[in-house]
From TrEMBL:
It is found in: Membrane. This is RING-type domain-containing protein. GO terms for molecular function: zinc ion binding. It comes from Lactuca saligna (Willowleaf lettuce). The chain crosses the membrane at residues 6-29. Keywords: Membrane, Metal-binding, Transmembrane, Transmembrane helix, Zinc, Zinc-finger. It comes from the Eukaryota. Residues 71-113 form the RING-type domain.
Length: 129
């Protein structure tokens, strides 16, 4: 009777201790022998747009964008009378101030990451003036 009580208490505790020790050994091995799996931080490769380049981008108002248009930068609706900016190429619309702030740091659309083409800012040879 005494032996069966001892075995009933000792064996589960011994089994859990072995499982815990194996877990700790695997954890130690992983921490000391496996390569670090963190992704390197990508540096900001491109500077933003200048004020002159921002002035060349098309401006519009909320009326022309359509109903229910939401600025993806500030997550607020673009009201009918508010100035807005449409990105050439992808046609995503944003508040004028939000778009200019974003583009002064990063020359790509905040929604689709489409980069603004440098050709857009060059003077065209076929200018009617």
């Amino acid at each position: 009777m005494m032996i069966s009580l001892f075995l009933a208490l000792f064996l589960p505790c011994a089994g859990m201790s072995v499982v815990f020790l194996v877990y700790m050994c695997l954890l130690w091995y992983a921490a000391h022998h496996l390569p670090e799996m963190t992704a390197p931080v990508k540096p900001n490769t491109g500077a933003g747009l200048s004020a002159a380049e921002l002035d060349k981008l098309p401006r519009t108002t909320g009326n022309e964008l359509g109903l229910g248009t939401e600025c993806s930068v500030c997550l607020e609706d673009i009201e009918a009378e508010q100035p807005a900016r449409v990105f050439p190429g992808c046609n995503h619309g944003f508040h004028l101030q939000c778009a200019d702030t974003w583009l002064s740091k990063n020359p790509a659309c905040p929604v689709c990451r489409n980069k603004l083409e440098p050709d857009f800012f060059r003077p065209s040879e076929t200018s009617p003036c």
